[in-house]
Design brief:
mainly alpha; AhpD-like
């Protein structure tokens, strides 16, 4: 296994993954991930966001990433993707819509989970009324 200092020297700095650990009171992001594995993720991240042959423009990517970050409850991701979306020209209305989509997905997930729990427990608290005319 390579020493941390050797792996760090050969790793490229990737925005969103690498930052100055002295700029925060807590440890740097990814500080508990072995450098060789962090570098694998960094290459994935770079291929997703920093390549010329991607299908989505950067603003759309950041709005999707924001909604996903909200659903995943990744606080650092949320702040980072809001900043990046703004940098890519996202309007407050576009950011709001991404947030509302995430709210809708989370609400649907709660309904889905409770539907399954109700089915497993044989519950039907509020039966749907038939829309057919008798």
């Amino acid at each position: 296994m390579a020493k941390d200092s050797e792996a760090t020297k050969t790793a490229e700095k990737i925005p969103g993954i690498d930052f100055d650990p002295g700029s925060r009171e807590r440890p740097a992001s990814y500080s508990m991930i072995e450098p060789r594995l962090k570098n694998i993720y960094a290459q994935f991240y770079k291929a997703t966001y920093f390549t010329d042959d991607k299908a989505l423009d950067s603003k759309t990517q950041e709005l999707i990433a924001l909604a996903c970050s909200l659903v995943a409850k990744c606080e650092g991701c949320i702040e980072g993707h809001i900043k990046k979306a703004l940098k890519e020209g996202a309007t407050r209305e576009e950011i709001s819509e991404a947030i509302v989509i995430a709210v809708g997905i989370n609400a649907a997930a709660v309904v889905d989970l409770t539907d399954k729990a109700a089915a497993n427990l044989g519950l039907n608290h509020f039966p749907a009324k038939s829309s057919r005319k008798s």
